[in-house]
Amino acid sequence: MPFDSHDADLRVIQVRTPEELQRFIRLPARLNASDPNWITPLMMERSEALSPKTNPFFEHAEVQLFLAVRDGRDVGRISAQIDALAPQAEGQKTGNFGLIAAEDDHMVFKVLFRAAEDWLRDRACTRALGPFNLSINEEVGLLVNGFDTPPMVMMGHDPAYTGARVEDQGYVKAKDLYAYLCDPTADLPAVVVRRVRRGLPDGVVLRELDMSRYDEEVVSLTEILNDAWAGNWGFVPTTEAETRQLAKALKPVIEKKMTLFAEIDGEPAGFIVLLPNVNEAIRDLGGKLLPFGWAKLLWRLKVKGVKSARVPLMGVKRKFADTMRGQLLPFHLMNAGRDASLALGYTKFEFSWVLEENMPMRRISEAMGATIYKTYRIYEKTL
Questions:
Q1: Residue 258 to residue 342: CA distance in whole angstroms
Q2: Cα–Cα distance measured from residue 115 to residue 305, given in angstroms and rounded to the nearest whole number
Q3: E-assigned strand segments in 267-322
Q4: DSSP character for 118?
Q5: How far apart are the C-alpha atoms of 345 and 300, rounded to whole Å?
Q6: Dist. CA 334–CA 273, nearest whole Å
Q7: 358 conformational bin, left if phi > 0, alpha if psi -120 to 50, beta if neither
Q8: Which residues of the chain register pLDDT less than 70?
Q9: Stated pTM of the model
Q10: Closest CA to 254 of 205, 293, 208
Q11: DSSP labels for 279-291?
């Protein structure tokens, strides 16, 4: 791919072959090798996430991956993608970039973004938004604050220089996303104690995930999620195929006592998922599960246990959200999840991600004693 650069040895290639895909996947581990808070994702999981054969996102999206190569050495990567299900403003077609990782070099970022932007322009996009890795329902945003701690499961971690390099390419903030950290052993604020001590309102029942009906339970969870989050900024509903994939991905690690449903008058009305922080278990595996990685992972998750968890999903159906019973559900769900995590030996959990303008969720998180400890930024640029 040609570009106006004095660095004749720098070029960008489109990822086409399985070997190039593996280079794309492995690159961030090398770039972040000196960062004590970096956790290498499982290579098997990344391969599945970036393959049209195993990720149903590709059924409604067009994706292209790019590698920047200098003197035969990979120095950067980026993705460009268009999700056909993503909401679009009238008269404006938005495409996405993601999976950005590169050496701290202005020219490397320049050629990567040029490649991604040209690809989006060729498909009539007038705006670029990201990073999305690959969907808004997967890893979202670039870490811009909170570099001193490792990321939790399904959250990103980026070198501190990356934000400035992205902004050098003409990108500006679109939205900030917050990760809240909560100490479940701390005393709850008085206002929360008063609310939960009153007990569940009439007609409200909390129950844990029923593993004997696991697939049905995930379908129910997804229906609540799609209803509760409809109309939220950027939200893309989860498809049936993605629901099946979600069920498959979560089953090995989900803890039924920390996945809770709320029913109102017998109807599923809300849910919360506290997901064991798999990153804590895989931190020293180097992305590999063979020959002994599976045994170590299962031991740490199921026997030895991890001490942190993340709340990636919570929702209340809109028909209940403005009722008194519906407004109390998040407090009861979060308190019940807190109690369950404490009983299982967890000592901290993260609420993420929370959109900066989502004041109801921010107030609930802060009422539970959580504080912002990481900020992820979504950038935009007119093409």
A1: 10
A2: 44
A3: 267-276, 308-316
A4: H
A5: 13
A6: 9
A7: beta
A8: 1-8, 290-292, 294, 303
A9: 0.92
A10: 208
A11: HHHHTTSTT--TT
Contact 335, 192 (CB under 8 A): yes
**Strand 371-382 vs strand 172-182: parallel, antiparallel, or unpaired?**
antiparallel
Q: What is the pLDDT of residues 198-228, one digit of tens each?
A: 888 899 999 999 999 999 999 999 999 999 8
Question: Residue 260 burial by CB count (10 A; 0-12/13-18/19+): exposed, middle or buried?
Answer: buried
- Return the residue matching tokens 């570099």: 147
- Region class of 152: left (phi > 0), else alpha (psi between -120 and 50), else beta: beta
Phi first, then psi, for residue 18 (nearest 5°) are -55, -35
CA end-to-end distance (rounded Å), the chain: 19
- Between the alpha carbon of residue 93 and those of residues 85, 121, 126, 382, the distances in Å are 12, 10, 6, 10
What is the pLDDT, as a whole number, of residue 6? 55
Angle at 76 between CA 103 and CA 354, to 5 degrees: 85
User: What is the DSSP track for 344-383?
Assistant: TT--EEEEEEEETT-HHHHHHHHHTT-EEEEEEEEEEEE-
Quote the CA–CA distance of 295 and 244 in Å, as a whole number. 25
Whether residue 273 contacts residue 314, with contact meaning beta carbons closer than 8 Å, is answered with yes
Amino acid at 171: Y
The candidate with the shortest Cα–Cα distance to 351, out of 289, 317, 309, is 309
Q: Are strands 172-182 and 61-70 parallel, antiparallel or unpaired?
A: unpaired
CA distance 370 to 126: 38
Token pair listed for 328: 């109390």
Q: Closest Cα partner for 352 from 174, 129, 180, 157?
A: 180
Task: Identify any residues that bridge with 139 across adjacent strands, giving them in sequence order.
Answer: 133
Q: Looking up tokens 């299982």, which residue turns up? A: 344
The whole-number pLDDT of residue 126 equals 96
| Residue 1, pLDDT score | 45
Q: Which amino acid is at 110?
A: K
